[in-house]
Design goal:
Number of domains: 1
Strand content: 15-25%
CATH architecture: Alpha-Beta Complex
Structural class: alpha+beta
Bound molecules: FE2/S2 (inorganic) cluster
Shape: globular
Order of helices and strands: HEEEHHHH
CATH topology: Sufe protein. Chain: A
Largest sheet: 3 strands, antiparallel
CATH class: Alpha Beta
Length: 144
């Protein structure tokens, strides 16, 4: 069996939603301390709906494929639904990732959560703090 699914290869070769949103409502950036890969997510949110999402990822192929798939999964969705996105859902939507590459999909989940947290913070919206990992201790180096 090939190491990477057709979907991973497709999203790696033709990533969806690459770029920057200049007037983003929420920006999240996370890095993996071990591999040094960095992922940045930009969200445009209107009436609690994610109307646009873009990403920049400096990292491995799995990280690029995960960012691409993750942005597709949350586009057009309510903020509350995007918050439920797990790395498992991203990996499943890609028809799986090799075990040693699962952490790349974790980066996508964390980058989106970080961007949503930024949106909440900028707009003084109350939120359940347990939804977000303890930034000081998670070790992923996100800058929120
Ligand atoms: Fe770093 Fe994939 S190896 S995110």
């Amino acid at each position: 069996m090939a190491l990477y699914s057709d979907k991973v290869m497709d999203h790696f070769r033709n990533p969806r939603n690459v770029g920057v949103i200049e007037d983003a409502d929420g920006i999240g950036e996370v890095g993996n301390a071990k591999c040094g890969d960095i992922m940045k997510i930009y969200l445009k949110i209107d009436n609690d709906i994610i109307t646009d999402v873009k990403f920049e990822t400096f990292g491995c192929g799995s990280a690029i494929a995960s960012s691409s798939m993750a942005t597709e999964l949350i586009k057009g969705k309510p903020v509350a639904e995007a918050l439920q996105l797990t790395n498992k859902a991203v990996a499943e939507a890609l028809d799986g990732l090799p075990a040693h590459k699962l952490h790349c999909s974790v980066l996508a989940e964390e980058a989106i959560k970080s961007a949503l947290k930024d949106y909440y913070d900028k707009n003084n919206i109350e939120y359940d703090h347990t939804l977000f990992p303890d930034c000081a201790s998670c070790g992923h180096g996100c800058d929120v």
